[in-house]
Amino acid sequence: MPSKIATALATLLVLAGGATAQESRGAITGEVKDSSGAPVPGAAVAATHLSTNVASRTATGPNGQYSLLYLAPGRYSVSAEMPGFKKAVRSVEVRVADRLTIDLALEPGGREETVEVKAGTPLLEVGTGSAGQVIDAQRINLLPLSDGNPFVLSRLAAGTAYTGDLKFSRPFDNAGTSSIVADGAPGGNEFTLDGSPNMAHGRRVAYVPPSDAVEEFKVETATYDAQQGHTAGATVNVVFKSGTNAFHGSAYEFYRSDSISANDFFLNRAGQPRASLSYNRFGGSLGGPVILPAYNGRDRTFFMVTYEGLKDEFPEPGTFTVPTEAERQGDFSALLAQGILIYDPLTAVRLPDGRIQRQTFPGNVIPPGRPATPGTTGGRTGATGRASRAACAPSATSCSASTTPSPTTTSIPTRRPRSSTCGWASRASTSPTSASTRGGSTPGAWASPPAPPPSSATPPTSRGSSSRPTPTTTSGRTSAAGGPPTCTRSSPR
Hints:
The protein is mostly beta strands. Helices cover 8% and strands 32% of the residues. The model is unreliable at 9-20 and 374-493 (pLDDT under 50).
Protein backbone atom coordinates (compact mmCIF):
# COMPACT_ATOMS: atom_id res chain seq x y z
CA MET A 1 0.00 0.00 0.00
CA PRO A 2 2.73 2.57 0.81
CA SER A 3 4.43 1.82 -2.50
CA LYS A 4 1.18 2.52 -4.41
CA ILE A 5 0.74 5.82 -2.58
CA ALA A 6 4.33 6.81 -3.38
CA THR A 7 3.82 5.91 -7.04
CA ALA A 8 0.63 7.97 -7.20
CA LEU A 9 2.32 10.99 -5.60
CA ALA A 10 5.26 10.76 -7.99
CA THR A 11 2.86 10.64 -10.95
CA LEU A 12 1.00 13.72 -9.69
CA LEU A 13 4.27 15.63 -9.27
CA VAL A 14 5.36 14.78 -12.80
CA LEU A 15 2.00 15.86 -14.23
CA ALA A 16 2.02 19.09 -12.21
CA GLY A 17 5.54 19.92 -13.36
CA GLY A 18 4.58 19.35 -16.98
CA ALA A 19 1.44 21.45 -16.67
CA THR A 20 3.37 24.60 -15.72
CA ALA A 21 5.76 24.40 -18.69
CA GLN A 22 5.28 24.91 -22.42
CA GLU A 23 7.18 22.67 -24.81
CA SER A 24 9.60 24.65 -26.96
CA ARG A 25 11.17 21.65 -28.70
CA GLY A 26 9.87 20.31 -31.98
CA ALA A 27 8.57 16.93 -33.12
CA ILE A 28 8.53 14.92 -36.35
CA THR A 29 5.86 12.36 -37.11
CA GLY A 30 4.92 10.47 -40.25
CA GLU A 31 4.60 7.14 -42.02
CA VAL A 32 7.06 4.85 -43.76
CA LYS A 33 5.66 3.06 -46.83
CA ASP A 34 7.04 0.99 -49.66
CA SER A 35 6.79 1.83 -53.35
CA SER A 36 3.31 0.29 -53.55
CA GLY A 37 2.00 2.43 -50.70
CA ALA A 38 1.85 -0.37 -48.12
CA PRO A 39 3.06 0.48 -44.57
CA VAL A 40 6.45 -0.84 -43.51
CA PRO A 41 6.40 -1.91 -39.84
CA GLY A 42 9.62 -2.23 -37.86
CA ALA A 43 11.63 0.22 -39.97
CA ALA A 44 14.41 2.07 -38.13
CA VAL A 45 13.89 5.85 -38.22
CA ALA A 46 16.47 8.38 -36.99
CA ALA A 47 16.69 12.18 -36.91
CA THR A 48 20.27 13.48 -36.64
CA HIS A 49 21.06 17.10 -35.75
CA LEU A 50 23.57 18.28 -38.35
CA SER A 51 25.42 20.68 -36.02
CA THR A 52 25.82 18.42 -32.99
CA ASN A 53 25.55 14.96 -34.64
CA VAL A 54 23.11 13.96 -31.87
CA ALA A 55 20.56 11.41 -33.14
CA SER A 56 17.05 10.57 -31.94
CA ARG A 57 15.94 7.05 -32.94
CA THR A 58 12.69 5.12 -33.07
CA ALA A 59 10.97 2.34 -35.02
CA THR A 60 7.74 2.31 -36.98
CA GLY A 61 4.68 0.66 -35.53
CA PRO A 62 2.36 -1.96 -37.06
CA ASN A 63 0.84 0.70 -39.34
CA GLY A 64 4.19 2.13 -40.38
CA GLN A 65 3.82 5.25 -38.23
CA TYR A 66 6.61 6.83 -36.19
CA SER A 67 7.12 9.76 -33.80
CA LEU A 68 10.34 11.59 -32.94
CA LEU A 69 9.74 13.97 -30.02
CA TYR A 70 11.70 16.62 -28.10
CA LEU A 71 13.92 17.78 -30.94
CA ALA A 72 15.99 20.93 -30.40
CA PRO A 73 15.56 23.54 -33.16
CA GLY A 74 17.99 23.15 -36.05
CA ARG A 75 18.69 21.28 -39.30
CA TYR A 76 18.05 17.53 -39.22
CA SER A 77 18.67 14.55 -41.46
CA VAL A 78 15.71 12.15 -41.19
CA SER A 79 16.43 8.61 -42.39
CA ALA A 80 14.52 5.32 -42.58
CA GLU A 81 15.99 1.91 -43.37
CA MET A 82 14.79 -1.66 -43.51
CA PRO A 83 16.46 -4.90 -44.71
CA GLY A 84 15.59 -5.43 -48.38
CA PHE A 85 15.02 -1.71 -49.01
CA LYS A 86 17.20 1.22 -49.94
CA LYS A 87 17.87 3.75 -47.20
CA ALA A 88 15.67 6.88 -47.50
CA VAL A 89 17.07 10.22 -46.30
CA ARG A 90 15.43 13.62 -46.15
CA SER A 91 16.72 16.94 -44.78
CA VAL A 92 14.34 19.16 -42.81
CA GLU A 93 14.56 22.16 -40.49
CA VAL A 94 12.85 21.92 -37.12
CA ARG A 95 11.94 25.26 -35.61
CA VAL A 96 10.72 26.17 -32.16
CA ALA A 97 7.57 24.22 -31.17
CA ASP A 98 7.23 22.75 -34.68
CA ARG A 99 5.03 19.69 -35.29
CA LEU A 100 6.17 18.40 -38.68
CA THR A 101 4.71 15.51 -40.66
CA ILE A 102 7.35 13.79 -42.82
CA ASP A 103 6.39 10.67 -44.80
CA LEU A 104 9.18 8.48 -46.20
CA ALA A 105 9.01 5.95 -49.05
CA LEU A 106 11.32 2.91 -49.22
CA GLU A 107 12.30 1.39 -52.54
CA PRO A 108 13.39 -2.22 -52.93
CA GLY A 109 17.15 -2.63 -53.04
CA GLY A 110 20.25 -3.08 -50.91
CA ARG A 111 20.80 -1.26 -47.64
CA GLU A 112 24.04 0.16 -48.98
CA GLU A 113 22.01 2.18 -51.47
CA THR A 114 20.58 5.52 -50.38
CA VAL A 115 17.69 7.52 -51.81
CA GLU A 116 17.99 11.17 -50.77
CA VAL A 117 14.88 13.27 -51.10
CA LYS A 118 15.48 16.92 -51.92
CA ALA A 119 12.54 18.62 -50.28
CA GLY A 120 12.22 21.51 -47.89
CA THR A 121 10.30 21.90 -44.68
CA PRO A 122 6.52 21.69 -45.20
CA LEU A 123 4.97 25.15 -45.41
CA LEU A 124 1.75 24.05 -43.73
CA GLU A 125 1.75 22.51 -40.27
CA VAL A 126 -1.02 19.93 -40.18
CA GLY A 127 -0.01 18.57 -36.78
CA THR A 128 -1.18 21.58 -34.76
CA GLY A 129 -3.98 24.13 -34.83
CA SER A 130 -1.85 26.97 -33.46
CA ALA A 131 -0.60 29.73 -35.74
CA GLY A 132 2.24 32.19 -35.34
CA GLN A 133 5.43 33.70 -36.71
CA VAL A 134 8.94 32.28 -36.20
CA ILE A 135 11.77 34.82 -35.88
CA ASP A 136 14.83 32.76 -36.75
CA ALA A 137 18.54 33.35 -36.10
CA GLN A 138 19.09 34.88 -39.55
CA ARG A 139 16.57 37.64 -38.92
CA ILE A 140 17.96 38.27 -35.44
CA ASN A 141 21.49 38.61 -36.85
CA LEU A 142 20.69 40.73 -39.91
CA LEU A 143 17.82 43.00 -38.89
CA PRO A 144 18.54 46.13 -36.82
CA LEU A 145 17.66 45.71 -33.14
CA SER A 146 16.88 48.66 -30.91
CA ASP A 147 19.28 48.42 -27.93
CA GLY A 148 20.13 44.84 -28.97
CA ASN A 149 16.73 43.64 -27.76
CA PRO A 150 15.66 40.60 -29.83
CA PHE A 151 12.05 40.90 -28.67
CA VAL A 152 11.52 44.07 -30.72
CA LEU A 153 11.19 41.72 -33.70
CA SER A 154 8.03 40.28 -32.18
CA ARG A 155 6.28 43.28 -33.74
CA LEU A 156 6.88 41.68 -37.16
CA ALA A 157 4.38 38.92 -36.42
CA ALA A 158 1.09 39.20 -38.25
CA GLY A 159 -1.72 40.60 -36.14
CA THR A 160 0.50 42.28 -33.52
CA ALA A 161 0.57 45.98 -32.65
CA TYR A 162 3.07 47.82 -30.47
CA THR A 163 1.56 50.05 -27.78
CA GLY A 164 4.62 51.07 -25.75
CA ASP A 165 7.16 53.90 -25.83
CA LEU A 166 9.80 53.47 -28.52
CA LYS A 167 12.44 55.08 -26.29
CA PHE A 168 12.25 52.24 -23.76
CA SER A 169 13.30 49.04 -25.49
CA ARG A 170 16.48 48.35 -23.52
CA PRO A 171 16.90 44.86 -22.05
CA PHE A 172 15.85 46.07 -18.59
CA ASP A 173 12.82 48.00 -19.90
CA ASN A 174 10.56 45.00 -19.51
CA ALA A 175 7.38 47.08 -19.61
CA GLY A 176 8.21 48.56 -23.02
CA THR A 177 9.36 45.18 -24.32
CA SER A 178 6.08 43.53 -23.33
CA SER A 179 3.83 46.20 -24.83
CA ILE A 180 2.44 44.26 -27.78
CA VAL A 181 -1.18 43.37 -28.49
CA ALA A 182 -2.02 40.29 -30.53
CA ASP A 183 -5.19 40.36 -32.65
CA GLY A 184 -6.66 43.00 -30.33
CA ALA A 185 -6.96 40.47 -27.50
CA PRO A 186 -7.22 41.90 -23.98
CA GLY A 187 -4.75 41.08 -21.25
CA GLY A 188 -1.00 40.55 -21.40
CA ASN A 189 1.22 38.08 -23.20
CA GLU A 190 3.05 34.95 -22.12
CA PHE A 191 6.86 34.79 -22.41
CA THR A 192 8.84 31.57 -21.99
CA LEU A 193 12.51 30.56 -22.12
CA ASP A 194 13.05 27.01 -23.36
CA GLY A 195 9.51 26.26 -22.23
CA SER A 196 9.91 27.71 -18.72
CA PRO A 197 7.79 30.73 -17.65
CA ASN A 198 9.60 34.05 -18.02
CA MET A 199 7.03 36.37 -16.47
CA ALA A 200 7.21 39.26 -14.00
CA HIS A 201 4.50 41.22 -12.23
CA GLY A 202 1.84 42.75 -14.45
CA ARG A 203 2.14 40.20 -17.30
CA ARG A 204 5.52 41.59 -18.30
CA VAL A 205 8.58 39.71 -19.46
CA ALA A 206 11.03 39.09 -16.61
CA TYR A 207 14.34 38.59 -18.45
CA VAL A 208 15.39 39.79 -21.90
CA PRO A 209 18.44 37.79 -23.08
CA PRO A 210 21.12 39.24 -25.36
CA SER A 211 20.46 38.72 -29.04
CA ASP A 212 23.55 36.52 -29.41
CA ALA A 213 22.08 34.07 -26.89
CA VAL A 214 18.80 33.52 -28.76
CA GLU A 215 18.56 30.81 -31.40
CA GLU A 216 15.03 31.79 -32.42
CA PHE A 217 11.61 32.49 -30.98
CA LYS A 218 8.02 32.06 -32.06
CA VAL A 219 5.17 34.52 -31.56
CA GLU A 220 1.98 32.48 -31.45
CA THR A 221 -1.04 34.70 -31.96
CA ALA A 222 -3.61 31.87 -32.20
CA THR A 223 -2.97 29.31 -29.45
CA TYR A 224 -5.29 26.31 -29.31
CA ASP A 225 -2.93 23.88 -27.62
CA ALA A 226 -3.96 22.86 -24.12
CA GLN A 227 -0.47 23.60 -22.78
CA GLN A 228 -1.07 27.29 -23.52
CA GLY A 229 -3.90 29.28 -22.05
CA HIS A 230 -2.52 31.52 -19.32
CA THR A 231 -3.57 34.61 -21.25
CA ALA A 232 -5.70 35.75 -24.16
CA GLY A 233 -2.70 37.50 -25.72
CA ALA A 234 0.25 36.14 -27.64
CA THR A 235 2.71 33.47 -26.54
CA VAL A 236 6.39 34.32 -27.16
CA ASN A 237 8.39 31.09 -26.91
CA VAL A 238 12.17 31.68 -26.89
CA VAL A 239 14.89 29.06 -27.45
CA PHE A 240 18.47 29.63 -26.32
CA LYS A 241 21.44 28.79 -28.49
CA SER A 242 23.42 25.66 -27.78
CA GLY A 243 27.03 24.79 -28.39
CA THR A 244 27.92 22.66 -31.41
CA ASN A 245 30.82 20.44 -32.46
CA ALA A 246 32.66 23.55 -33.69
CA PHE A 247 33.75 26.45 -31.53
CA HIS A 248 32.10 29.74 -32.43
CA GLY A 249 31.83 33.11 -30.75
CA SER A 250 31.32 36.83 -31.20
CA ALA A 251 32.40 40.16 -29.72
CA TYR A 252 30.83 43.56 -30.27
CA GLU A 253 30.59 47.11 -28.95
CA PHE A 254 28.20 49.92 -29.87
CA TYR A 255 29.43 53.29 -28.66
CA ARG A 256 27.94 56.78 -28.95
CA SER A 257 29.70 59.78 -27.41
CA ASP A 258 28.05 63.09 -26.54
CA SER A 259 31.14 64.86 -27.91
CA ILE A 260 29.83 64.30 -31.45
CA SER A 261 26.18 65.04 -30.61
CA ALA A 262 24.49 68.37 -31.32
CA ASN A 263 22.67 70.35 -28.69
CA ASP A 264 18.91 70.24 -28.37
CA PHE A 265 17.00 72.94 -30.28
CA PHE A 266 15.16 74.22 -27.21
CA LEU A 267 18.32 74.20 -25.10
CA ASN A 268 20.07 76.23 -27.77
CA ARG A 269 17.23 78.74 -27.83
CA ALA A 270 17.34 79.05 -24.06
CA GLY A 271 21.13 79.39 -24.04
CA GLN A 272 21.57 76.20 -22.04
CA PRO A 273 24.50 73.81 -22.51
CA ARG A 274 24.16 70.38 -24.03
CA ALA A 275 22.90 67.68 -21.67
CA SER A 276 24.83 64.45 -21.12
CA LEU A 277 24.13 61.91 -23.84
CA SER A 278 26.21 58.74 -23.96
CA TYR A 279 25.57 55.12 -24.93
CA ASN A 280 27.89 52.13 -24.68
CA ARG A 281 26.67 48.56 -25.23
CA PHE A 282 29.24 45.77 -25.35
CA GLY A 283 29.35 42.01 -25.03
CA GLY A 284 30.28 38.68 -26.55
CA SER A 285 29.50 34.98 -26.74
CA LEU A 286 31.36 31.68 -26.93
CA GLY A 287 30.10 28.15 -27.51
CA GLY A 288 31.37 24.73 -28.51
CA PRO A 289 32.04 21.21 -27.26
CA VAL A 290 33.28 20.54 -23.74
CA ILE A 291 36.94 19.51 -24.06
CA LEU A 292 38.74 18.31 -20.92
CA PRO A 293 42.06 16.50 -20.52
CA ALA A 294 40.28 13.18 -19.99
CA TYR A 295 37.02 13.89 -21.78
CA ASN A 296 36.01 14.76 -25.34
CA GLY A 297 32.51 16.22 -25.46
CA ARG A 298 32.05 16.20 -29.23
CA ASP A 299 28.74 14.64 -30.27
CA ARG A 300 27.75 14.54 -26.56
CA THR A 301 28.35 17.61 -24.34
CA PHE A 302 28.33 21.29 -25.30
CA PHE A 303 28.45 24.71 -23.64
CA MET A 304 27.30 28.25 -24.48
CA VAL A 305 28.01 31.47 -22.56
CA THR A 306 26.92 35.03 -23.39
CA TYR A 307 27.56 38.39 -21.73
CA GLU A 308 26.31 41.90 -22.42
CA GLY A 309 26.77 45.22 -20.62
CA LEU A 310 24.97 48.51 -21.19
CA LYS A 311 25.82 52.02 -19.96
CA ASP A 312 23.23 54.54 -21.06
CA GLU A 313 22.73 58.18 -20.12
CA PHE A 314 20.27 60.51 -21.82
CA PRO A 315 18.15 63.50 -20.81
CA GLU A 316 14.44 63.04 -20.26
CA PRO A 317 12.74 66.44 -20.53
CA GLY A 318 9.42 67.06 -18.86
CA THR A 319 6.80 69.82 -18.53
CA PHE A 320 5.72 70.76 -15.02
CA THR A 321 3.14 73.26 -13.78
CA VAL A 322 3.78 75.48 -10.74
CA PRO A 323 1.71 78.41 -9.46
CA THR A 324 2.77 81.89 -10.43
CA GLU A 325 3.60 84.57 -7.88
CA ALA A 326 0.19 86.19 -8.41
CA GLU A 327 -1.57 82.86 -7.86
CA ARG A 328 0.35 82.39 -4.63
CA GLN A 329 -1.15 85.70 -3.48
CA GLY A 330 -4.64 84.50 -4.39
CA ASP A 331 -4.94 86.27 -7.77
CA PHE A 332 -6.23 83.79 -10.38
CA SER A 333 -7.58 86.40 -12.76
CA ALA A 334 -5.21 85.24 -15.50
CA LEU A 335 -7.14 81.97 -15.67
CA LEU A 336 -10.37 83.68 -16.72
CA ALA A 337 -9.19 83.70 -20.33
CA GLN A 338 -9.01 79.90 -20.14
CA GLY A 339 -12.50 79.60 -18.71
CA ILE A 340 -11.27 78.48 -15.27
CA LEU A 341 -13.33 79.86 -12.37
CA ILE A 342 -12.48 79.78 -8.65
CA TYR A 343 -15.46 79.01 -6.40
CA ASP A 344 -15.95 80.02 -2.80
CA PRO A 345 -16.56 76.85 -0.75
CA LEU A 346 -18.19 78.81 2.07
CA THR A 347 -21.07 79.85 -0.20
CA ALA A 348 -22.22 76.29 -0.89
CA VAL A 349 -25.99 75.73 -0.74
CA ARG A 350 -28.04 72.67 -1.61
CA LEU A 351 -30.56 73.18 -4.40
CA PRO A 352 -33.99 71.50 -4.37
CA ASP A 353 -32.77 68.91 -6.87
CA GLY A 354 -29.95 67.89 -4.50
CA ARG A 355 -27.07 69.56 -6.30
CA ILE A 356 -24.58 71.77 -4.48
CA GLN A 357 -24.11 75.28 -5.86
CA ARG A 358 -21.29 77.69 -4.98
CA GLN A 359 -20.54 81.27 -5.92
CA THR A 360 -17.37 82.35 -7.69
CA PHE A 361 -14.86 84.76 -6.21
CA PRO A 362 -15.21 88.18 -7.84
CA GLY A 363 -12.61 88.50 -10.58
CA ASN A 364 -11.17 85.10 -9.67
CA VAL A 365 -9.31 86.74 -6.77
CA ILE A 366 -9.38 85.24 -3.28
CA PRO A 367 -9.42 88.02 -0.70
CA PRO A 368 -6.26 88.27 1.40
CA GLY A 369 -6.55 86.74 4.85
CA ARG A 370 -9.66 84.81 3.89
CA PRO A 371 -10.13 82.10 6.56
CA ALA A 372 -10.73 78.59 5.34
CA THR A 373 -12.91 76.49 7.63
CA PRO A 374 -13.32 72.69 7.51
CA GLY A 375 -16.85 71.42 7.36
CA THR A 376 -19.18 69.59 5.06
CA THR A 377 -18.16 68.19 1.70
CA GLY A 378 -20.91 67.08 -0.62
CA GLY A 379 -23.59 67.41 2.07
CA ARG A 380 -21.80 65.30 4.71
CA THR A 381 -20.51 66.76 7.96
CA GLY A 382 -17.01 66.42 9.32
CA ALA A 383 -16.07 65.48 12.89
CA THR A 384 -13.79 67.00 15.50
CA GLY A 385 -10.25 65.70 15.30
CA ARG A 386 -10.79 64.10 11.88
CA ALA A 387 -8.74 65.34 8.94
CA SER A 388 -10.75 67.18 6.31
CA ARG A 389 -10.16 66.98 2.61
CA ALA A 390 -8.24 69.87 1.07
CA ALA A 391 -7.57 70.85 -2.51
CA CYS A 392 -4.07 71.66 -3.69
CA ALA A 393 -2.59 73.67 -6.48
CA PRO A 394 -2.53 71.93 -9.87
CA SER A 395 1.17 71.23 -9.38
CA ALA A 396 0.86 69.56 -5.99
CA THR A 397 1.82 65.96 -5.41
CA SER A 398 0.26 65.52 -1.98
CA CYS A 399 -1.98 67.34 0.45
CA SER A 400 -2.45 67.17 4.16
CA ALA A 401 -5.15 68.66 6.34
CA SER A 402 -5.85 68.64 10.04
CA THR A 403 -8.53 70.02 12.30
CA THR A 404 -8.34 71.13 15.88
CA PRO A 405 -7.80 70.07 18.51
CA SER A 406 -5.70 67.19 17.10
CA PRO A 407 -2.34 68.33 15.61
CA THR A 408 -1.97 65.23 13.42
CA THR A 409 -2.07 65.41 9.64
CA THR A 410 -3.44 63.11 6.96
CA SER A 411 -1.87 62.86 3.51
CA ILE A 412 -3.93 62.66 0.36
CA PRO A 413 -1.51 61.65 -2.46
CA THR A 414 -2.05 62.51 -6.09
CA ARG A 415 -0.32 61.30 -9.24
CA ARG A 416 1.48 64.40 -10.41
CA PRO A 417 5.21 63.68 -10.40
CA ARG A 418 8.12 65.94 -9.63
CA SER A 419 6.35 69.08 -8.48
CA SER A 420 5.46 71.09 -5.42
CA THR A 421 3.79 69.74 -2.30
CA CYS A 422 1.24 71.59 -0.24
CA GLY A 423 0.35 71.12 3.38
CA TRP A 424 -2.74 72.61 5.01
CA ALA A 425 -2.97 73.16 8.73
CA SER A 426 -5.84 74.71 10.69
CA ARG A 427 -5.38 77.25 13.44
CA ALA A 428 -6.17 76.34 17.02
CA SER A 429 -9.65 77.43 18.02
CA THR A 430 -11.19 78.19 21.39
CA SER A 431 -14.60 77.01 20.19
CA PRO A 432 -15.76 73.82 21.93
CA THR A 433 -16.81 72.34 18.58
CA SER A 434 -14.91 72.84 15.35
CA ALA A 435 -16.88 70.65 12.96
CA SER A 436 -20.06 71.47 11.13
CA THR A 437 -23.31 69.83 12.15
CA ARG A 438 -26.59 68.98 10.50
CA GLY A 439 -29.72 71.02 10.98
CA GLY A 440 -28.40 74.44 9.92
CA SER A 441 -30.40 76.97 7.97
CA THR A 442 -28.61 75.99 4.75
CA PRO A 443 -28.33 72.19 4.52
CA GLY A 444 -25.07 71.10 2.96
CA ALA A 445 -23.32 74.45 3.58
CA TRP A 446 -20.09 74.62 5.51
CA ALA A 447 -20.57 75.86 9.07
CA SER A 448 -17.95 78.39 10.21
CA PRO A 449 -16.79 78.28 13.83
CA PRO A 450 -15.85 81.51 15.62
CA ALA A 451 -12.82 83.27 14.25
CA PRO A 452 -9.61 82.26 16.00
CA PRO A 453 -7.95 84.77 18.30
CA PRO A 454 -4.89 86.56 16.96
CA SER A 455 -2.66 84.88 19.52
CA SER A 456 -3.58 81.34 18.56
CA ALA A 457 -0.68 79.21 17.38
CA THR A 458 -0.51 77.21 14.22
CA PRO A 459 0.16 73.48 14.73
CA PRO A 460 3.12 72.04 12.84
CA THR A 461 2.36 70.95 9.31
CA SER A 462 3.52 67.88 7.48
CA ARG A 463 5.81 69.82 5.08
CA GLY A 464 7.20 73.33 4.97
CA SER A 465 6.61 76.42 7.02
CA SER A 466 5.46 79.13 4.60
CA SER A 467 2.12 80.80 5.35
CA ARG A 468 1.31 82.22 1.93
CA PRO A 469 -2.24 81.35 0.85
CA THR A 470 -2.24 79.08 -2.16
CA PRO A 471 -5.66 78.99 -3.83
CA THR A 472 -6.40 75.86 -5.79
CA THR A 473 -8.68 74.57 -8.47
CA THR A 474 -10.06 71.08 -8.95
CA SER A 475 -12.35 70.62 -11.98
CA GLY A 476 -13.36 74.31 -11.85
CA ARG A 477 -14.11 74.34 -8.11
CA THR A 478 -12.14 75.10 -5.02
CA SER A 479 -12.31 73.39 -1.68
CA ALA A 480 -10.95 74.69 1.60
CA ALA A 481 -9.35 73.06 4.58
CA GLY A 482 -8.83 74.44 8.02
CA GLY A 483 -6.43 77.35 7.42
CA PRO A 484 -3.66 78.90 5.40
CA PRO A 485 -1.58 76.51 3.32
CA THR A 486 2.09 75.72 3.64
CA CYS A 487 4.01 74.95 0.46
CA THR A 488 7.44 73.58 -0.26
CA ARG A 489 9.14 72.36 -3.42
CA SER A 490 10.07 68.68 -3.47
CA SER A 491 13.10 67.51 -5.42
CA PRO A 492 12.63 64.94 -8.21
CA ARG A 493 13.13 61.34 -7.23
